[in-house]
Write the structure tokens for this entry.
Amino acid sequence: MIVRIATEGQYELSEDDAEALGELDNQAVASCEADDEAHFRATYSKLLEFVRSHGREVAEDSLAPSDLILPPPDVSIEEARAEFKGEGLIPG
């Protein structure tokens, strides 16, 4: 699975990482729905760190399509609400 972090680049993660990503995504959705910016920041930071630490960076010259695109690290909670809703970014 290839995950893009907007403004940073792409990371290749194993399919085994999908469950952990989904859980963090669900927590981000709950934070947005509760309008809890502090919890959203903490959760989204964990999600980004998970991608960075478990993923292998994809070369910049690679033209691989992203399976998932995450907002930039500095996304506001208002902007995040448009992305993190319902099933979130990772359905399932």
